[in-house]
Amino acid sequence: MQYSSSRHQRLPRHEVVSQWIRSEIDSGRLGIGAQLPSEKELQKTFNISRITVRRALQTLESEGLIYRKQGLGSFVADYRVRHGLVRLTDFSEDISGAGIEPSSKVLFYAQENASEEVALTLGIEPHSVCARLDRLRLGNGRPIAFDRTWLPLYYARLLDGRDLSKETIYQILQREYKIPVVRGRYLIEAVNADKELAGYLEIKENQAVLAIYRTSFTVSDQPIYFQKRFYRCDRVIYELELERDPSKNPSIPSALPLRQFSPLFVQVPKNGQGFKK
């Protein structure tokens, strides 16, 4: 167990211990389910009392980062938080529901000519003008996803003058203009981050990211926007749950109705130490 005291000389001793354990968890050196050093080992390493060690562990336990078993010691908790996605939600709803503070940075918002892919998805003529919105999505102030969204000009004009770093497209269209988002179509795949995307997400170039391509529709099957979202793979995974319809003949193959489709977000401490780099 290695520890350098130079960076923590001004911190209370219990915070030194808790910060060191957080860094071990953030770096992956202590994975989910891993056992922490014993109280005696922590006492010896940090030259502190047993009371100080226990105070540090209590802090981490209250944050949900660890759990303790009587007579066995302390272990790294599964700090990913479940969030339902069976219904259509936006980024703020997803993240807030996971107990993480959401925020966004608008990186680009302007008109451009639609590519063939964008035009086909939005139901507009190829190379006709649409609007493109790029946003960096943050959880507790740290990068978690990058969005690139294309909108037909009719819907884009409804966003003019709005603060898209604080308001979501769903919120504006539904609350202000009574335009409901009634359906979404998703495509999910793993891709390697190019140099630009890696810079935004603070990861290495060619590192794998989770790509989600989403088309959202209003009534009459009218596309509202086409979005490509790229998640850091160390911060979200998806859980899919299906169930068979018991009314169907079990001897006849049938589709499995979707019961649950959930992203599992990693809790990001607000002290900014929740992301590996």
From TrEMBL:
Keyword Transcription: yes
Annotated InterPro entries: Bact_HTH_transcr_reg (IPR050679), Chorismate_lyase_/UTRA_dom_sf (IPR028978), Tscrpt_reg_HTH_GntR (IPR000524), UTRA (IPR011663), WH-like_DNA-bd_sf (IPR036388), WH_DNA-bd_sf (IPR036390)
Record keywords: DNA-binding, Transcription, Transcription regulation
Short name of any one Pfam family annotated for the protein: UTRA
A GO molecular function held by the record: DNA binding
GO biological process, one term: negative regulation of DNA-templated transcription
Gene3D superfamilies named among the record's database cross-references: Chorismate lyase-like, Winged helix-like DNA-binding domain superfamily/Winged helix DNA-binding domain
Domain HTH gntR-type: 11-79
Protein name: Transcriptional regulator, GntR family
Biological source species: Methylacidiphilum infernorum (isolate V4) (Methylokorus infernorum (strain V4))
